[in-house]
Structure prediction request, 178 residues.
Amino acid sequence: MVGVRVAAAFGVAACCLALSSPAAAQGGDAPLAPGPFATGSVRLSLTAGAAWSGSDTYLVLGVGAGYFFVDGLEAGLDYEAWVAGSPTLQRLSPEVRYVFYFVPTVKPYLGTFYRHTFVSGFDDFDQIGVRGGIYFVPQGGHLYGGGGLVYERVLDCTSSVVVDCDSVYPELFLGIAF
Prediction:
């Protein structure tokens, strides 16, 4: 039930942000440039962190790439390896994310993803999820940061390695635009 409420909250936020036009968000000023979220921009990412599953602590290492097909709209693919715990997990995740680049000061984002988790010695499992948060983009800079929340749901909770079918967790990041 918590998962349904979180998904509903993300949906309401998406509708409210989508209904705000770029002109209204700018308050009549000149259009805001998409900056690092412009058509043709590329995202490359490295992931390093820690995660917990059951009684194991994992070192999480990953890489990812994304491409902005239109201003603010990114399609990407990320890979993570969860090592130093048992069993070893590998996760492959295509995603779509929209950045509301025309909003002044902070740039809200919403996205959705599918994830396939490969589990050594056990059945693999699949997840779907949504994410939302904000980016902070310094004026004229190529470096940006942000954070938000992720909700994910395991599609088939019969795997012996699945601890919770629904999970919500924070994400924090730094990025460099090319």
Q: What stands out?
A: DSSP finds two helices and eight strands in the chain.
